[in-house]
Amino acid sequence: MSSRKHTALYDWHARHGANIVEFGDYMMPVWYASSKDEHLAVVNRAGLFDTSHMAAVRVLGPGAFDLLQWCFTRNLLACVGKDNGPIVPGRCVYGVFLDEHGHAIDDSIVYKIADEEYLAVVNAGMGGVIAAHLAENRGTRDVRLVELTDQFGKIDIQGPASIRIMQRVLKAPEAVFESLPYFSFKGHFDPASPFASGAQLLDGTPLLLSRSGYTGEVGFEIFVEGRHNVRVWEMLMEAGRDLGLPACGLAARDSLRTGAVLPLSHQDIGHWPFIHNPWPFALPFDQAKTGFTKTFLGSAALDKAVDAPHTLTFVGHDLRKIDAHAAVVRDLQGKELGTVLTCATDMAIGRHDGRIYSVATPNKPEGLSIKGLSCGYVKVTGKLPPGTAVELNDGKRSIRVNIETDVRPDRTARKALKTFL
Hints:
By secondary structure, the protein is α+β, with helices and mostly antiparallel strands. Helices cover 18% and strands 29% of the residues.
């Protein structure tokens, strides 16, 4: 029991009837009344997630950029916007920290605060691991690493109504929302930072407000000092009450991220070469997709990993799932092809005449009843073209699914904020 950690919001979750499980050494809410309702709330309105179990590492000093350019998969000189510009203060990018074998240690969003200040946000329990990995590869670079595990609060508000809710709690929301494209941020959670005035709550509490998240829907990740976490959470719940804002657990976060074709670290990416997968945007491919635009830790191994397994996306034909941990992939003749990494159910999608629709899809076929579809990732020995039918079998249940390139259509994450105001 002593190894189990609690976020500052644990007591709130327990008082409000959350089903709580151990995840990444933390006791976290998996759902409240219904993970299905929480999933649909994010797609249709908004939902609130406690993500304070996430960890982070500050990377500071004149050598910070060079260290991240070597250890992080994204080319920080060419990663922002349609023109692939260099990362600048106020922008953040998604990528992966690899080892020398090209295997994923953890995925991360790296924030550029200033020319000599970066923040790498990583998964629960990985702050010390990534800090040690960066220290090991620091060499002679002038870099200071500060691990922030359990030293800040983090709350994600996701869904089309999240902008209206944030308008109600932010000081100067017009200024905050101005020029805030996807994967950008304003402010800082450290009141001593010169950037802390960039985003504040109505009572003056500084926050780092990031237009990002892991659901595929428009929304924000909110970083505050840990002592403010419960108060900010309750402030947001109250501000979104009339818009039907629910507290959401990890089950909805998992099904939403799967429907958005996003990986779960240590399940969908891990100790095999990070190549041949649905996330080529996390690697610095050149325009022809035949090589990389920079050399980085693990790139030499990836160049040689021609026989690495392929991670592919699948979507089922109804909402039935299988136990991914015990499941194998077979072709329709019964030949075993590989294993299942993730199997979730996106409750916001359905099929009609071979096409996948979302509850958010405009001009859906009349009378279409959307009840949810299973979806996830398989790791197989070779590439299978989109549309290929395969069987997933966990020994108790067998389901037929199709290999796809996308899952939930009409996601809102990249839409202009003015669309929702």
